[in-house]
């Protein structure tokens, strides 16, 4: 792990030597080197953040290459994953053992010592698989000093683990629909205002979830029923008459409809977009994972779901 920590320190020293040039009245003046770090809004701040993340990634990759930490492999032939980064969030995967916990602690200490960024363990959490013994889990929690999540938290509004009850996993979407319609000013909208509200607010709520998961048709129908009741709703005490069915409202305006979305078909269209990305970028991490899991000896277009398929 020595070369990785030296690389991080070298990068940090290079950043500190970056000089700026002052432009006054269109002419370049003398350059200067900042001595008090980067202020908020500095154009170098995002690059500094990415370089620091790359330093942590290098430490984890090097430790995984020499088997100091063991990542996860979802199936035989799939790439080994030791960590995943998204924005300022970090997911680290390792074996549930005291040895793995000690190695992770060492890596985080090297990272903090080189870049002077201390990991906030109070905001960090750990999740164990069901086959981990309680004594082992207690030792790992004690070494890392993080809290244990019995049920994984949601990430970016989506469940990290979806069980057999798919409807229960996505009930937050239904709750967001009802919460949006509970606003007092929404209840007094005209039909034109309702159309704009449905298309710009309600139908935009499940887009991200539908881009990642295949929701059940019954759940999509339940969301459409909520929208339909709101569309034909006249007052708080009057339910309103549904003069036509929801599929008729989903017909395009060119065909004398209102152009509302059919959620089930829209869901499939968004996932087809992800499928196109798998075809166009076969070397990406998600493409290699899904290929190893579902079509190791075939192609994406000829792949079969197999047993216990993912909701993606």
UniProtKB/TrEMBL annotation:
Ranges for domain Reverse transcriptase: 1-160
Species the sequence originates in: Hibiscus trionum
Any Pfam family: RVT_1
PANTHER family the UniProt entry points to: REVERSE TRANSCRIPTASE DOMAIN-CONTAINING PROTEIN (PTHR33116:SF86), REVERSE TRANSCRIPTASE ZINC-BINDING DOMAIN-CONTAINING PROTEIN-RELATED-RELATED (PTHR33116)
InterPro entries in the record: DNA/RNA_pol_sf, RT_dom
Coiled coil: none
Protein's recorded name: Reverse transcriptase domain-containing protein
Source species, domain of life: Eukaryota
């Amino acid at each position: 792990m020595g070369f990785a920590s030296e690389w991080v320190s070298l990068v940090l020293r290079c950043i500190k030597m970056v000089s700026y040039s002052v432009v006054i009245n269109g002419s370049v003046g003398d350059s200067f080197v900042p001595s008090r770090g980067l202020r908020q809004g500095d154009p170098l701040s995002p690059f500094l953040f990415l370089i620091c993340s790359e330093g942590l990634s290098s430490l984890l990759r090097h430790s995984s290459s020499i088997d100091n930490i063991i990542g996860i492999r979802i199936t035989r032939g799939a790439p080994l994953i030791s960590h995943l980064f998204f924005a300022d969030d970090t997911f680290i995967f390792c074996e549930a053992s005291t040895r793995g916990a000690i190695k992770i602690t060492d890596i985080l200490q090297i990272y903090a010592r080189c870049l002077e960024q201390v990991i906030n363990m109070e905001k960090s959490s750990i999740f164990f698989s069901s086959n981990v013994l309680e004594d082992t889990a207690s030792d790992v929690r004690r070494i890392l000093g993080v809290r244990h999540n019995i049920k994984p938290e949601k990430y970016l509004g989506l469940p990290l683990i979806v069980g057999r009850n798919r409807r229960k996993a996505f009930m937050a979407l239904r709750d967001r629909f009802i919460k949006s319609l509970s606003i007092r000013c929404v209840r007094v909208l005209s039909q034109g205002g309702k159309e704009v509200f449905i298309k710009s607010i309600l139908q935009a709520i499940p887009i991200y979830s539908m881009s990642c998961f295949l929701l059940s048709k019954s759940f999509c129908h339940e969301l459409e029923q909520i929208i339909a009741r709101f569309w034909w709703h006249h007052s708080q005490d009057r339910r309103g008459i549904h003069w036509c069915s929801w599929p008729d409202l989903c017909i395009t305006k060119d065909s004398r409809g209102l152009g509302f979305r059919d959620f089930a078909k829209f869901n499939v269209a968004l996932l087809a977009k992800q499928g196109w990305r798998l075809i166009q970028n076969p070397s990406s991490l998600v493409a290699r994972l899904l290929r190893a899991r579902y079509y190791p000896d075939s192609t994406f277009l000829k792949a079969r779901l197999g047993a216990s398929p993912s909701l993606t």
